[in-house]
Amino acid sequence: MKLTMGSEFVVKLFQILEEPENYPYISWALDGRSFIISNIQGFSEFVLEKHFRHKNWSSFVRQLNKYDFYKVRRDEERIGERGQWEYKNKYFQRGRPELLDKIRRKKAPSEGSGSGSTSPKQIESGMVYQSHVLNAVRTISKYLQTVVEDINDIKKYIYHERMRIASKINVLFVKGDVPGSEWICSALKIPNYSLTIVEESSDVRNVMRWKYDVVVLYASTSGCSKSVSRIRSLDASVPIVLVVDEEFKNEYMNILGIRVSEALLMPLDPKDLVDAVNRHGSQRGLEGG
C-alpha cells in the first residue's frame, strides 16, 4: 500500500503495520485503534534497521511522543507477556489511512506561540518591516532636510531684500509752482533712492499714506508755507528739504521758521542736494528702524 497523506514517519509506521512479515514484532490491537510492539529486541533489529536505518529503540519512542502517540497502560495479564508496549493516537487507526494527515508533530516549547518565542518566519518578516520603516525614515529625513534648506534660502533672500530696501531712501519730490525743476528730478534719480514725484503739493495727500524718509519741495517763497503745512498735516515728522531761488535768500530765516529741516538756495550744485537728502533721509530711516 502506497500512502501519500501524513508525515513520513507516521505513513511509514502505518505501512509497517500493514506488512505481514512484521507481525511477529508489531501489530494492530484487536480493536484496531492502537498498536502493540510485542518483541522490542526483534523490532529494533529487524524493523527499525530495515525501515529507519537504525536500531535505537529510545529514538523511535521519542518520535512517537513527538507525533502525540501515548503509551497505553494495560494489565500485564491481559498483554500476556512482559516487555510488550502499546501505543495509541486517536487518528492512527487500522484501515483509516485518510486520518493520517491529521497527525501533526507537536511543537517544541521554543516553537510555541507563548510570549518571548518568535519563529524564523516572524523574525524575517519583522526584519523586512524594519527595513521598510528605516528606508521610509531616511526618505522623510532627506525630504525634511531639503525643506529646511529651502526655508533657510528663503529667509536669506528675504533678509537681503529687506536690507536692500532698507538701504534705499524713500524720497518724495514735490515740484511745486516753480518751473525748471527737471534738473532736480535728474539729480534724485540715483540707484539708492526710491523716488516718487508729484506735480503739486495738493497731490501730496494721495501719496503720503506711504512712508517717506525725506520730502524735497521746490516752490516759490509765497507758496512755501502752504505747501509745508499741507505736508505737515499728513506727516508731522518727515524731514523736508526746501529748494528756493537765490532771489529769496533774504527771507531764508523766515523759510526755516515754517518747519522745514533745511533750505537750499539756487543756483545749487546737485551734489549739495543729494548730500542734504542723504543726511536727513538716513537719519529718518534710523529713527524709523
Automatic annotation (TrEMBL):
Which Gene3D superfamilies does the record match to this protein? Answer: 3.40.50.2300, Winged helix-like DNA-binding domain superfamily/Winged helix DNA-binding domain
Q: Which Pfam families match?
A: HSF_DNA-bind
Query: Could you say which protein family the record assigns here?
Result: Belongs to the HSF family.
Entry annotated with the keyword DNA-binding:
yes
Domain HSF-type DNA-binding: residue ranges: 5-106
**Where's it mainly located?**
nucleus
**Could you tell me where this protein is found in the cell?**
Nucleus
Q: Which GO terms describe its molecular function?
A: DNA-binding transcription factor activity; sequence-specific DNA binding
| Domain of life of the organism encoding this protein | Eukaryota
Any idea what this protein is called?
Answer: Heat shock transcription factor
TM segments?
none
- What InterPro entries does its record include? CheY-like_superfamily (IPR011006), HSF_DNA-bd (IPR000232), WH-like_DNA-bd_sf (IPR036388), WH_DNA-bd_sf (IPR036390)
Per the record, what is one GO cellular component?
Answer: nucleus
Keywords tagged on the record: DNA-binding, Nucleus, Stress response, Transcription, Transcription regulation
